[in-house]
Amino acid sequence: MAALSNRPKYIGYKGATSLLRRILAPRRPQPRHSSLVTCQRSCYFRPRTRRERLPVKASELLKPTNREEADLLEKLDLKRLPEHLAVIMDGNGRWAERRHLPRVAGHRAGVKAAREVIETCARLKLPYLTLYAFSLENWRRPQAEVDFLMRLLREYLKRELPSIHKNNIRLLIIGRSADLPEAVRKDLEHGMRLTARNTGMKLVVALNYGGRAELVDAFNALLDRVRANGLSAFHADEQTISENLYTAGLPDPDLLIRTSGEMRVSNFLLWQIAYAEIYVTETLWPDFSRARLLEALVDYQKRERRYGGLGGSRGRAGSTARSKAADASGRG
């Protein structure tokens, strides 16, 4: 009897039809999580069923505060923003002098401008922002002013670092940081450690930086490697030099902004800005508002970047990735 019970049962035509319908019927997708609240609390990534709509307008990322900003945001194309923006922050002293204030007042006002630029770039999702904060030549200024700048830097880090970390921004420092005061170095190292795993915009601050000094340090690093390894047939190329710069691993700037109207690059990123677009504004740094930044980005998008090629072959301004492709094919 046990053997007979294992035989398949005869279900007839109607039963077979009903079973076939159940098998072929489309199944309703079952939620991967018991509740949305549970998922949001326990999952790093949101469920795929809740796809985020990609913003098509800059105003969806950045809320304008006035009519001018609104008009500029309408002109901004999110697909053609620079990958790497570098800024020479100049004009703090002149801003103070025009208002019959001490120079330190201009530096304090400049901190507010820096905060607004950092916030705007992060909201627009620019991958890299480099700010020229203190050059090797700045040590020639009066000692009282240098001491104030170092205190201001520490004050800024203490106040703004929690916000930088909260907004997923990673802090990086380039320059001869070993020559900075010990207290400043410790604060900078703490900031870099705290934000090391952040995946948002990389905020690169140039401190005790000089473009020529960077090249000297890169060449000395190469010479040390040659001496240590006995590489008599060693041959340096552009890639080898780039890998030994302070900015190793970072793309070259697409756009360099200079405030205060000075028509020079002031020993800043001399190697890296070979193909960067340069935008100079008469606006002094403390007055460099969000609107002025948006104005520079809109102007950048109107430019045609050729990288040594013929006009029209590359189209409008784009990211550094295209510049590397152009460099690989040779310069004209």
Element layout with pairings:
Blueprint: H1 2-5, H2 12-24, H3 36-42, H4 67-75, E1 84-88, H5 92-98, H6 103-123, E2 128-135, H7 143-166, E3 170-174, H8 182-194, E4 202-209, H9 211-229, H10 238-242, E5 255-258, E6 277-280, H11 290-301, H12 320-328
Parallel strand pairs: 1-2, 1-5, 2-4, 3-4, 5-6
Helix pairs in contact: 4-11, 5-6, 6-7, 7-8
* Biggest beta sheet attributes: 6 strands, parallel
**What is the CATH homologous superfamily assignment of the domain at 82-301?**
Decaprenyl diphosphate synthase-like
CATH fold assignment of the domain at 82-301:
Undecaprenyl pyrophosphate synthetase
Integer-rounded radius of gyration:
28 Å
Mean pLDDT: 84
- How many runs of DSSP E, i.e. beta strands? 6
SS-based class: alpha/beta
The separation of the N and C termini measures: 91 Å
Please state the overall shape, judged from the principal axes of the Cα atoms. globular
The helix/strand order is: HHHHEHHEHEHEHHEEHH
Please report the first level of CATH classification, the CATH class of the domain at 82-301: Alpha Beta
Number of helices: 12
Strand order of the largest sheet: 3-4-2-1-5-6
Spans of at least 5 consecutive residues with low confidence:
1-5, 29-53, 320-332
Report the helical percentage. Answer: 40-55%
Strand content: 5-15%
So, CATH architecture of the domain at 82-301?
Answer: 3-Layer(aba) Sandwich
